[in-house]
Amino acid sequence: MLDYQQSISGHINRLFSKRSSGSALTLRMAPLIDVIFLLLIFFFVSIGLSPAESFLPMALPNQPGSTAAIAVVEPLVISVSDIGRGCKISFAPGHSVTLHSSSIDTDMLVTAQTLREVMIKQKRTSADPVELVFDDGVKWDYTAKIYNLLFGLGIEDITFRLNE
What we know:
Layout: H1 2-16, H2 29-46, E1 76-82, E2 86-92, E3 95-100, H3 104-121, E4 130-134, H4 140-152, E5 158-161
Parallel strand pairs: 1-4, 4-5
Antiparallel strand pairs: 1-2, 2-3
């Protein structure tokens, strides 16, 4: 047992003593930095990134103990067609607004009021999805103004339908 303790103390003394060349024992930084970068790369590669789930299309049960039925909310389809010097926005059958390039500000106000009426009639909220369908001739300026109007009204789930 005494021999074992002497051998351990000899190893410890050799680790912390000066080298035979007279230089002090130092820690080499280059291999340490290499190991740190390898660990960093390993953690970045092995981490699993998943997208945030901010919208789940389901309704919560009304009564405790009842089974929850998954209900997908159908989007409100807004069709936009070109009429030459403006565009026509159709929200639902019988609800449409015409935007003219000369009176775009007042027409956008009428559009917001008509959209509000349609959403109240269909019992929708600003969290419900909206799908925009544009004809080929609609100018980009009208597309941006309609999108900005919807986003300004608090509607964030806006998608564009692409026709091929």
